[in-house]
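BUG-464 | component: ligand-complex export | severity: low

The export step for iron/sulfur cluster jobs runs without errors, but we want the raw record kept on the ticket for reference. Input record follows.
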Amino acid sequence: MADKKFEPLIVGILCNWCSYAGADLAGTSRFKYPENIKIIRVMCSGRVDPLFVIKAFKEGADGVLVSGCHPGDCHYIDGNIKAMRRETLLSKLLEDLGIEKERFKLTWVSASEGEKFVEIVEEMTNTLRELGPLNLEGGEKIV
Amino acid sequence: MSKLKLAVYWTAACGGCDVAILDINERILQVDEAAEIVFWPLAADPKYDDVKNMPDDAIDVCLLHGAIRNSENEEMARVLRQKSKVMIAFGSCSAFGGIPGLANFFDKKEIFERVYRESESTAGKAGVYPSPAVIVPEGELTIPEFYDTVLTLDQVVEVDYYVPGCPPAVDTIWTALEAIITGELPLRGTVIAGVKTLCDECSRKKEEKKITEIKRPMEVEIDPERCLLEQGIVCCGPATRGGCGARCTSANMPCRGCYGPTDHSIDQGAKLVSAIASIIDSKDPEEIKKITHLLSDPAGTFYRFSLPGSMLRRKRKEDVS
Ligand code: SF4
Ligand code: SF4
Ligand code: SF4
Ligand code: FES
């Protein structure tokens, strides 16, 4: 159920060299983007263990955005390709666990694509506003 | 020296763990010499009150196997915890939920519907369903409350040690029993099994891991020497604790993960996503998708024995808003 007042919390895990720089550019260019996203910087999207994503959901994220350099641009050659291979399988695993695929996104944003970063965050925020809160109640017994 | 007082109890279990204890064969005599079994529903015919009437800490060690999925399981776990100095979560069900834990992909209502209304073999009178309490001429009869979510033992009471496996291998059981008998128990909280992953003790040849297909064991002629994962067969070895002696992979079957995660892999699902993704031999998003989709039930496969003990513990409940 979509709640008008519901503001999703998005955890953004961004690679240092491209997407984090892209987000930074969005900031220094004074583009406005939803404050729903909380950003964590990692060295490479290939460093993002699926556990980070699952843990973010467990700790209350309504969505998780992983973003790295465009294919071919990764500073560690193929970290983003690794991220891409994980994404498909992780998405499927999360769906089996009742976490819709809209809640987990992998994107490519370069250091010069501040505007694209803003669009991605806006779009994801809107999608999640519609989708509603995740409300994980892991392990609580309801009798 | 007075004998050690042992208790063995089952909650949501299949009984295989009881049988596994008996599988230590003649070594059971050594156990008998050192210990007195004060409570074991499978082997004797004790009553709950026998335990409830014991003073606290009257039992030295309790081996409890089975998950917690109803109020009776929980009550007995609490009683036994209070009466036991050392509580051991024995077997995968107790340690991380095990096979009964797969029920966490559903909830109480869905399970009820399936079992009492939809199943092909249901032949009961329509409209007659079990309920927690019923009045009969002789008085009120009650059955335990069924929980929505299957729990691990340590989600209900404090657990001192874990003995994983479905069931634990004889050697694993003996290591645990010997430690109990000699009083040389490891650090509290230890999982009494291997420390490294199963891959570490699996003798199959590991070469270059690269796959373009995911296959099920019955679809291929399995090479008995090579790593199964390299042959495109999903093997949970990379995310599973060693200690079983590679029972399955040496019998030409993939590991299904019954020893649960290692201290490092934490969540078998997350770890297996990484392990399998890393060997997919493609850079093309469409092809990656195609290969990945050959694996039809990743969550059920990766969390086969550990869903309740995993990071998310269960499938998200739809009706919470
Ligand atoms: S761990 Fe396996 S053998 Fe033991 S009770 Fe559970 S299902 Fe049965
Ligand atoms: S993946 Fe399976 S078959 Fe391969 S080494 Fe590990 S346990 Fe053995
Ligand atoms: S190989 Fe895997 S599934 Fe088989 S007994 Fe060992 S841990 Fe369990
Ligand atoms: S450095 Fe940006 S994705 Fe690897």
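Assignee comment: Attached the raw record above. The first strand of chain B starts at residue 4 and ends at 10.
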